[in-house]
């Protein structure tokens, strides 16, 4: 069955452009406002949302925040669109839970590539030989796609879950930013190592990491390393 995508933008020509290029491969729904998008999401499940940052009324940031704070929606993949080509807007989108972003005007083929990458990385891999990872009180379950700490489910986004999963799969090994970009985002993301840093920072906050008892170590100028299951660095 075709994946279902919700496009949210107040510019009709943008909605129609994206719809026209996606509807042969996906089931496409559209919304012209944040309020309409939230109404649709309350009634129908989606596999991905393309969300404009600058919306009248409830803007893209608010929509993203509300989605990430709802248990049944928190892992919905989100690609954020912004008319501003500024680092601050990109970082803000990532920090509120967007999985990816694209600046207007955008290339439709690039949008299609990013959609495929996000959907691929957010899907559960049935061939995964191991379905559970643990580091001290942090437990990741692939079957339920949940991360628990001391029994409490942590509100991770789909991208944060996949990033933590990749780090746990390679416990004790330093993973470069480029490696993480390629494996998690699924395409070359040249010059955007900040994307990884933002997600790592957000992930650290959610898993309750502190300097004395870290889960993830930063290797300056290289990337990141997840401590082994017993919590010690070799």
Major sheet details: 5 strands, parallel
CATH topology of the largest domain: Rossmann fold
Class of secondary structure makeup: alpha/beta
Using the 3D structure, state the CATH architecture of the largest domain.
3-Layer(aba) Sandwich
Superfamily (CATH H level) name of the largest domain: Response regulator
Strand order of the largest sheet: 2-1-3-4-5
Please tally the β strands and state the result: 12
Tally the helices: 8
Report the principal-axis shape.
Answer: globular
Helix residue percentage: 25-40%
Percent strand = 15-25%
How many domain regions?
Answer: 2
Q: Segments where pLDDT lies below 50 for 5+ residues?
A: 124-129, 230-234
List the main descriptive attributes of the protein structure presented here.
234 residues, alpha/beta, Rossmann fold, Arc Repressor Mutant, subunit A, 2 domains, four-stranded antiparallel beta sheet, 38% helix, globular, disordered C terminus
Please give a structural write-up.
- This protein is an alpha/beta fold and 234 residues long.
- The chain has 2 domains: 119 residues, 3-Layer(aba) Sandwich (Rossmann fold); 95 residues, Winged helix-like DNA-binding domain superfamily/Winged helix DNA-binding domain (Arc Repressor Mutant, subunit A, Orthogonal Bundle).
- Helix 2 runs parallel beside helix 3 and helix 7 crosses helix 8.
- The longest helix is centred in the middle third of the chain and has 15 residues.
- The protein is globular and about 50 Å long.
What is the structure about, briefly put?
This protein is an alpha/beta fold.
